[in-house]
Amino acid sequence: MPTFAYERRLITQGFKVIVGVDEVGCGALAGPVCAGAVVLPLDSRLGAIRDSKLVGPQERERLYARIVERADAWSVGYADVQEIATLNIRGATFLAMRRAVEQIPQAQVLLIDAWRIPGVDLPQQAIIHGDLLVKSIAAASLIAKVSRDRVMQSYHEQYPQYGFPIHKGYATALHKKAIAIHGPCLIHRLGFRTFSS
To answer: Are the C-beta atoms of 36 and 76 separated by less than 8 Å?
Structure first.
């Protein structure tokens, strides 16, 4: 389970506002990439927090509500399909992360799952498997996942033929079959291999 070990170490170094950052949606064929940023107090009592990929939908929603209630600060940043096409997926992911971090102006240091964010003038630690190790990164993962899932569910009204509430834009057999039948829509990432092969 993720712990506050990294956060505690930074507190001993004099940092007070420690922001965990993570993204979701990099591997999807449709929709935005989304980043979460979370500042958790050490007494938040969120023992069940873990990487969003290890939590079912109902539990994610429950944990999302608890994080929002107990976090000192939290935010979400997006990069849309046009920005993904322009910047490529990695550049768009960094853009979403910057947008999330910029909404926490009191931030002093960042703990990020696997990456350092270009263009952010703050101390940063890139932690491999950070969403499995660091509580604030795991919380950011859950915030990002639930937020992006809600966006993808909202697209169902506009594009009901693709089944976005089921697969959230990822490359499932159901999604690929829908693309084969109906062709791509405006929120599909046309630069991805599925569409260029």
So the answer is: yes
